[in-house]
Amino acid sequence: PRYAVMSFHVFLHEGVDLAVYETHKGGEFDQTNVIAHPVVTAITPIGIDHIATLGPSIENIAWHKAGVFEVGAAALSICREPAVAEVLNARAAEKGVMLKFVGVDHQLPGDFAARVQRLNRSLAREVADAFLARMSPGQRLSREDIVEGMRQFSWPGRFQTIHDGRCTWFLDGAHNELSVREAAEYKLHCLFFSSLCQRDVADTAPRGSALPRRVLVFAQVSHDRDVDSVLRRLAQYMQHKVQEVIFTVGKYDSYGTDNRLTSNSYGPAESLSEESTIITRYAEIWQELEPQARVSISATTKDAVERARMSAGSANNTHVLVTGSLRLVGNVFQILGVAVAS
Predict the structure, then answer these.
(1) What is its EC number (predicted)?
(2) Which of 289, 269, 288, 271 is nearest to 279 (CA)?
(3) With left for phi above 0 and alpha for psi between -120 and 50, is residue 265 left, alpha or beta?
(4) Which of 152, 186, 202 is the last residue of a domain?
């Protein structure tokens, strides 16, 4: 909450013309939902997340999300799933708001491989138009405005690919069932269908070589979502597609000087740690679902990255999907020496 309050102060002091706020959890009781007269409200795809405070069902979560609707503000959403749409429509009617559902605008420029990005850019266009219609009637974004906006778009750590020697890293901070599905579909699309990644393989592997070795690095420790379900869903999407899975707690490096480790059937893990117990459970879940996969635990992100690199062995190309946590992805950025601004 303190960050929201601080931003109100800074934006008012600086006299900004337009502020875009993303809710932290839900909407109805979110700390950002104190703005009396928003111009536009919008809801992006809804997944099972923050179930401790918003759940347990997708309908409960949708009810909370719709709390951002306000009389007098445009209301937009790209959530068309029947159960979710029904709740959103009911909440809009309750609040006296006309809700508009947005579809994919295939005429928009830009090369976005993931479906969720194509949906969100379509919603962003509608939000911009709705804002202009209310604040500057008669004005619309020009084609040049849209092209320039898409050109400047950057979201490090979401559907991002980095080439580093013999490893190609697919970085995605997905952390709930909906986003890990998108991350898995993106990686599989790149590996097997995308012309972009076919060029990647051609550039890094000898002619006639087999598909790259595939490794998953996963970290997430949360008491606010059902991570076991997230992991099971990811395993379902990645079934038989990954040869090695590395679990870690997501720390960049060991804290302090006490670096004692304990061993279990999956390798070293941090000693006397609740996090160690959690990621050991993750390893057991994956091994149960994918008995043929090589499953291991790394105490830190640096260890996990090194293990993934070693997994390449003599192979000329290894594809590594890093997902489960934005913190994990940020740490991998540092280890790979990637400037986040890029």
Answers:
(1) 6.3.2.17
(2) 269
(3) alpha
(4) 152
Nearest to residue 73, comparing CAs of 34, 16, 130, 4?
Answer: 130
CATH code: domain of residue 130: 3.40.1190.10
Angle, helices 58-65/82-94, rounded to nearest 10 degrees: 40
| Per-residue burial over 318-335, b = 16 or more CB atoms within 10 Å of its CB, e = otherwise | bbbbbbbbbbbbbbbbeb
* Contacts for 10 with CB less than 8 Å, ≥ 6 apart: none
User: Do 168 and 51 sit in the same domain of this protein?
Assistant: no
**What one-letter code names the amino acid at 145?**
D
* Residue 301: both structure tokens together: 């992100």
**Distance between CA 330 and CA 285 in Å, rounded?**
25
pLDDT tens string for the chain (342 positions)? Answer: 678 889 999 999 999 999 999 988 878 888 888 888 999 999 998 876 666 667 678 899 899 999 999 999 999 999 888 999 999 999 999 999 999 999 988 888 877 767 788 888 999 999 999 999 999 998 889 999 999 998 888 888 888 888 888 888 988 888 776 777 777 776 666 654 443 344 444 444 444 455 678 899 998 877 666 778 888 888 888 778 888 999 998 665 543 323 333 334 454 444 436 778 888 888 999 999 899 999 999 988 999 999 999 887 666 678 898 998 888 999 999 999 876 544
Helix axes 227-237, 177-192, angle to 10 degrees: 20
Task: List the domain range (segments joined by +) for residue 141.
Answer: 2-152
Q: Are residues 121 and 219 in the same domain?
A: no
8 Å CB contact between 217 and 328: yes
Measured over all CA atoms, what is the biggest interatomic distance in the chain, rounded to whole angstroms? 67
Read off the CATH number of the domain in which 328 is found.
3.90.190.20
CB of 289 within 8 A of CB of 232?
A: yes
The answer to whether residues 86 and 209 belong to one domain is no
Q: Which two tokens stand for residue 25?
A: 């959890």
